[in-house]
């Protein structure tokens, strides 16, 4: 299930509200991916530094480190990682900045399960295509 | 926006402006109302599990709802000269409770020392403890029989602890001593000297007095611990103390001892050493004791073989203390987990003479496969228990350990339901494994429908309609229906899952499915065609897919293995607590005396009340004698009457001048009425046969004396806007008002019809009123009739339905113009009624809601 190329992708979820990480872990695990979830973006980046992730789903507004900083940190570790930013305060200027810095997609909370699944599947297809 | 022309008097001009202002507030209320209902629907959908949300979504949504709700009240008061000022105060109380929940507070019952049975539900664990919250859910949501008592809340517990300074003194002991026995001994002495504070003792006594009648043992109560965290992730099950057969006079003392068991040696040995006295607070459940003929325990899975599709029931004669305490193993039955719950095996206990039941047993065993005559309960009781067990398992989303008893009338009672702990299989049941298992099954339906309540379930397809009797639906089957009719509520409670062809996640039945945690997929289009009756299926709502066949769902689902139920996390609890103060509608019937400001509890109540009163303000404006005619253009149409028009916004095309063609009318409701009025068939142009009696009767009744008739300017007048119309007509000496709002949202739409007076003798006028009442009732109006005054109201109508009603009303008005004069007797009335139906065609009379 994980991908067409047979590789099992590693996903990282970062949101300072634990509910989001819990639910997304549940859903991504069911889709066949290996998932780690963090409420602390600093710890999440440390985990990514130990072993890079293929796809990162991160909240935008967080204590400590915001989603754009996470994006930069992740891209520094592995430029190929696809980063999806989720936020309750979708503002177009933030989205513009994010896209210019290589974000894969931008999703506003609350979102439906199929929206995030769709974004993940597109990220996977993108990764498969470039591999 | 007022387009009335000419030289209207100042008074009329003022009236006109007053009405325009009224209408502005009214439209504002409608717009706010819609927006709030949408926001509520979004919150309810989030509860179904389809959406990922966070607390800031809850905060922003609820803050928005409250802010808009306040504006609704403001606008109503602006319409009604501040006659509804009390609403602000009451609304603020509800808003404060919402703010408290958003801030993580205990909610509306936070300060109550004692909680009534009727207020308990699953999200009150912090106040009622695990047992109290669960029993509340069993009683109030599932409506299963459980002896109704009360709960001494954690607030009551704190009140007791603080009144005796016990938190501080216990913490001292916990700090100074580490041995559990030493701690318990010292704390035990403190509790032995402690007294219930007067207010708590009084609250307990009052609650004991309020307990209702039932098949109870006289003066005999169960007083049980209901810890916060008990039965939860760190199970304290059996660690706290419970007392049975407590007389009323000793309930307070028993409560005190149960609270003391929070600091028993056993418990202090069980919890981590650094847990302070304030943590793990203790509520107490007090219930009347059932005079039990038999009692026992039901496990919805076999703890020894969790994967087997069986339920396990044990039973003993009398009250169940011996069984629960492990002194008597009792009779033991295994039943299939599928309807009709056939027995798989039974072991009847050998018992000393006198223990077995004597005399006629209402639940006597009667079915082959079980040993006759010797079991404590019969198969019908076991099957009923199995039904209850599966409903409880679905509702609490995990296998259950249920204590039950049977009274002398043969009625079953649920005494307790808590999670059954089972060993977990390591591989089977992981989400990924389950997905692989499912993918091997043939797909019957996929990518269809809207998620209403997330979940994974299996069962046999049973086709239902809203005629299907609830009790005939096999518990644990998968219901498949054409429509998501609210009448299926009972079936949704019994079903493992429900799928419909037509239906929406914002409808009433979707709310019901979420309440009962029944996986639900609505609007699947062709479910009734694709899913044949009797087929075994698995439904995965998240994937919107139905498979043929069965996959073993892990017994512990969804408690373990990363399938943790989203429905019991903090955010979902908070959302449900918020929705309880927002979504339920208590004010249903405007005719009910409880339909008043004081009756508003939820946000929905406030909206409903304000909408109802706003409509009344609109109607009353015309009935109040404030006038506004004289200014507007005349309608040019092939009608035997003249109608003057006043446009208050969007009712007429820009091109309209001092005379208006029917094609220039842009008011939606007025266009519909005109279509009816212009129906040639309906007008009766022959002069009415006029008797001397009618003439005298007419002279004796000056218009001003017509019952409740509004002051009348002597002209036919239509006040119109794009979505609004108020038509005042004088036809054949009777007076007729139609007031209507017609837009896309059924919630907004209403029509009001008022008909009074006439120039004929009383008998005829009354007969005509009866006939009009019948026609209106046929058009689904709520009708009131006093003499020859007819009032009809209809609300919440689909746009197309209301349009056809308005056309019929136009025809009715035309048809009744001189009817009172013609209507000599009952036979004549029937004839006219039939004739009217014949003339206008009767399609809307047959259809409707």
Structure keywords:
heterodimer, A: 131 residues, alpha/beta, Rossmann fold, 6 strands, globular, B: 849 residues, alpha+beta, Dna Ligase, domain 1, 5 domains, seven-stranded mixed beta sheet, 29 strands
Fold and architecture overview:
- The complex is a heterodimer of chains A (131) and B (849).
- Chain A is an alpha/beta fold and 131 residues long.
- Chain A has a single domain, classed as Rossmann fold (3-Layer(aba) Sandwich), CATH 3.40.50.
- Chain A contains five helices and six strands.
- The longest helix of chain A is centred in the last third of the chain and has 18 residues, at 113-130.
- Chain B has five domains: 15-108 and 581-618; 116-290, ATP-grasp fold, A domain (Dna Ligase, domain 1, 2-Layer Sandwich); 292-419, ATP-grasp fold, B domain (D-amino Acid Aminotransferase, Chain A, domain 1, 2-Layer Sandwich), CATH 3.30.470.20; 431-553, Glucose Oxidase, domain 1 (3-Layer(bba) Sandwich); 629-846, no CATH class.
- Chain B is built from 25 helices and 29 strands.
- An eight-stranded mixed beta sheet of chain B has the order 13-20-19-15-16-17-18-14. A seven-stranded mixed beta sheet of chain B has the order 22-24-25-26-27-29-28, sandwiched between helices. Chain B has a six-stranded antiparallel beta sheet with strand order 10-9-8-7-11-12.
- Mean pLDDT of chain B is 81; it is low at 1-8, 231-235, 352-373, 558-564, 687-713 and 842-849.
- Chains A and B meet through helix 1 and strand 6 of A and strand 1, helix 2 and helix 13 of B.
